[in-house]
Amino acid sequence: MPSKDPLKIKETRKKNYKKYKEFYIKKSRYQKYKNILYYFEKKNSFKCSKCSENHISCLEFHHTDPSKKEYNVSVLKNRSHKKLLKEIKKCIVLCSNCHKKLHWEDNKINKLKQKVNLYDQKKEKNKKEKEICKGCGKNKKEIDFVTRRYFCKECYKEYQKNKMRERRNKVKNSL
Fold it and tell me: Is 162 inside any structural domain?
């Protein structure tokens, strides 16, 4: 009767592996090739869900819900049939062109929407800043704006005086 001790079992497996190493390697390769063949046979039975392309080299698996994705289907070709089939059920089959178009549309449209939203937010922020005098903080509706610097008349005169003082001081310091 075989031993139930985990350490003895591990030692026995190590000895057997060393003794029959070539056999285990061949067995592993055989299983790997068998799984890959199963993957290609399965893939060969599909066609693109958009354009009906059915050549095996053109077909790709697209996960409809990325949050449920556990593996890439192509990685599972070396694993068990159950895992492979489970992952394939979460996908639709598309040819390379349709798959690229689908992702381009998703990515391009989303990126453009983000850019438009950012632009709108900046525009709104700038609009709010333009409505307030930088000098006294009064609302634009209450005062008359005279420059692109967004000062009311009184604050703009003060701003010009300060600028002139700064320029004179720079000239005096440089001499």
Answer: yes
